[in-house]
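User: Sequence in, structure out. Go.
Assistant: Echoing your sequence, followed by the structure tokens.
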Amino acid sequence: MVIVHAKQVLTPEGWAQNRAVHIAADGRIAAVTAQGGACDSAVDMLLPAAVNLHSHAFQRAMSGLTEMRGPDPSDSFWTWRRLMYRYLDRLTPDDIEAIAAQVFLEMLEAGYAGVAEFHYLHHDVGGAAYGALGELSERIVAAAEAVGIGLTLLPVLYQWGGCDGRALQGGQQRFGSTPEQYVRLHEAAARAVRASHADYHIGVAPHSLRAVDAAGMRAALDVAGAGPIHMHLAEQLAEVEEVQAAWGARPVEWLFEHHAVDARWCLIHATQMTAGETERLARSGAVAGLCPITESSLGDGIFNGVAYLDHGGRLGFGSDSNIHIAYFDELRTLEYSQRLRDRSRAALASAQFSTGRVLVEAAVQGGAQAAGRQSGAIATGHWADLVGLCTDNAWVCNRTGDAALDSLVFGGHGQKCVSEVWSAGRHIVRGGEHAKRRETSERFRAVVERLGQDI
């Protein structure tokens, strides 16, 4: 039994003072009690750690390389996407594993305990399958194992270059699968996941209504079982218009009319929704997977957060392109987007709780649901996904309760306060640093320097 003492703990019942969290050998929380006796670790504040619910790990290597405007005067998500596809043609399996390990390490140091990896890079350059169809899924699992992060692997089905069924081109070819091939690929990915840690899970991810057809959707959902289902939805205006023209309905409208969207689903971005669509998604029990830093970077638009929460919606947070992996910054960016749009303050706060409290609880609960992971609360039987924070500094000034959360989210230095992180009981960040930081970062830097900066 491992015992963690904390001066303050956020429990499902609210704030508790001077508690001991007992972690069993299987990585689950055995008990939460009053402090007494010796402990293995002591922290100022203990929170349930969030799951990063949406990541494309390989894109981390592009961070900082897409900020020059090209010959097209109207630079946009679509021009960025073309650059990303060009970069793909240079990545080997070893590169992908090294990049993913660095990404997952940075997530842990930011305070995430798990990740739902939206994994759509499956094949070799040109689209040829590897000898082992699940080669790159196995590399993602290996990277997660190496740094100790919890993993929900979401193999992506990607069939077409658009709603008109056009063939995949260039870097896109590395994503492509027929429904039949996807079933085999998913089986290979599932084997790799099930051979690993007990807290690793498998889900499915039909990429988007632009990239899959009705048969593809059926194939993905057939292999999902009770596992998580993730999908990009209504991210860009051009996407909404394309789907509406081809499928006869807006993306959210079509999905809800043709599939039973429930708590297994996580709909990513959803930045282009009407008021009615916002309410329908909120009432479905699904999670809206928000990536505010990436959505800001790509000019996606602003999620209808105020209305969505007013209707009881569930949401969580991801780092998507991994341009900047910072848990508390994601929460702040969402809140500030609502304030800028509505010219308001404390937009997402409730009558009972501060903005920081609302955002942190939404993040940990929504991320756990989206990942199919029994976490998101410091409670007996849950995985010990915990983040210990230092409050004795100039950023938090030993504040307690919701005021401390608001200081972490809005003070701009929340990530610097992360001192300890446990993922399913694995104590992998100590004193703010991962034990494998040096070797992991050296391998990552070698890959990035070899790839160069010309994309």
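User: And one key feature?
Assistant: The first helix runs from residue 77 to 88.
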